[in-house]
Input
Amino acid sequence: MRELMRRYFAGTVSSSDLQMKIGRNRQPYYLSDEDIATTAISTLSDYANSLRLPYNQSQLLTIKSFIASIGIPYSLLNSKGDLDRIGQKLFQGFVVDFFAKGVPMSQVQINANSVMSVIPLNQTLVNEAYYNVLNKAADKFLKDGFMSDNEQRLIESYTSSLGISLNNLPSNCQNGGLVRIAQSMILKNLQNGIYPNNPLSVPIMLTKGEKVIWVYDNVTMLQEKITREYVGGSRGMSYRICKGLTYRTGSFKGHPVERSSMETVGTGEFVITDKNLFFHCPTASVKIPYKKLVGLTPYSDGLEVHKEEAKPKRTVFQGFDAWFVMNVLNLVNS
Output
């Protein structure tokens, strides 16, 4: 049966022959729907993996006829999400033509939507495909360390046409070149006095007119904790007066010693606005106004803030590259 399906994709067996031979062999060889589905998905995956860009409509028709000919319910074929993965790959292959070949977005969407007529994808998978293509384009644009104006226009055209946001990226795109491009575009707009208008899903209270610039997820807040103890020795004698009561003579000679350590407050969202830094997690919510900042120490994986306090304590936010925050603070406070 596997060889029969391979011959279909090689073009030496027609869809009608495939349908006839599977139907004829079902009973004498005790083939269940699960048997046929397992073999079909394996062979279809091999075919999809063999495809190279650019994709075309004839490949979609080949897949569509195959699914119709084997006579297996779609839900069974896709029980483990195999068809979703194949469909998403094909969908992305048509979308990438926007960057690779300059195909207008209107035609790109027509071609990409033709995949949906063969392998339906839900909106979550579609959005994920759009972001995957955009992330790959961003990595390519940043390979030379510089994004040209034309490359920026392509990204702006892509996102505006599809109605997707660079300021609220899915988790699988938050460590790639797309983040750096999105942040670079925000910084360029801030230089021109243009602030982003980002929705906020974190339960914090903004002041009137305050604008959200960026939200980092999975940031860990650490704060300095100071403990004090006395060390030293004593001299003298103890006299038992009665049960549970002792009188001690002599003196104690010692001195206080302070010890500091960084303790984890929690892991949550770190929000940058045009007026404040916010941190929110299930156990704590912190607001740091820019006017209370006296200094910042950037690290490769976070930022230490120094606040104007009577007894200042070290406060560190860990889990992001500090360059963007430093640039934002420089622009909004200039």
Notes: Residues 2-121 form one domain. Strands lie at 212-235, 238-242, 245-248, 251-273, 276-281, 284-289, 293-299, 302-307, 315-318. The first strand starts at residue 212 and ends at 235.
